[in-house]
Design goal:
alpha/beta, TC-AMP_synthase_SUA5, 10 strands, about 25% helix, about 200 residues, DHBP synthase, ten-stranded mixed β-sheet, globular
Length: about 200
């Protein structure tokens, strides 16, 4: 049960280990994007469920997507209005996104910036990370760091003494950009009014 400090967690992530930390929705399992396979293995997760690229700011995530100037303008307007927050934007992936993050459709990537101070501080040091909820595949999301440490003994888990902002426990809303505009893939705690 490797419960670690924030500094140890950041160092571990940069060194290529799977880590877990709180976000504004549910705690995340995270790893460097090229090591996405480690998350699938830890969760026993099917490869048809893509991971999300989480960053400290939207600016950190734009290099991982590609589109026309007009599309980027639309995406940036949505991001400016709702991020940081519980919204995941599924956009066309650039060549920087490893295929292992979305094995069944490597042409797209979900990006998100959590509205959570500790998560943002970690991501600012590590750079964008491949993430997913901290739970075994098919089971409910684990909401406490101690439960995560017990379930995932090889994952570096942030210690419970940190002053956590409470997570909502609700998943992010997921919207995908299509040729017809935005499509809601999962309705979470944010409702977009201007799609």
């Amino acid at each position: 049960m490797p419960i670690v400090s924030r500094t140890e967690l950041i160092t571990g992530a940069i060194e290529g280990k799977v880590v877990s930390f709180p976000t504004d929705t549910v705690p995340a399992l995270a790893a460097l994007p090229p090591l996405s396979d480690l998350i699938f293995l830890a969760k026993k997760r099917s490869q048809d469920k893509p991971l999300i690229l989480m960053g400290a700011s939207v600016k950190d995530l734009w290099p991982y997507v590609m589109g026309t100037c007009e599309q980027l303008e639309i995406w940036q307007q949505i991001a400016q209005e709702y991020l940081p927050g519980a919204l995941t934007l599924v956009l066309p992936a650039s060549g920087l996104v490893p295929r292992s993050m979305n094995p069944t459709d490597p042409t797209t990537i979900g990006i998100r910036v959590p509205q959570h101070q500790i998560a943002q501080m970690i991501l600012a040091k590590t750079g964008p990370l491949a993430t997913t909820s901290a739970n075994l595949s098919g089971e409910p999301a684990l909401l406490s760091m101690s439960a995560i440490a017990q379930t995932f003994p090889d994952v570096l888990t942030l210690n419970d003494e940190e002053k956590f902002q409470p997570a909502s426990g609700l998943p992010s809303t997921v919207v995908k950009w299509t040729s017809q505009g935005w499509e809601v893939l999962r309705q979470g705690q944010i409702t977009l009014t201007n799609l």
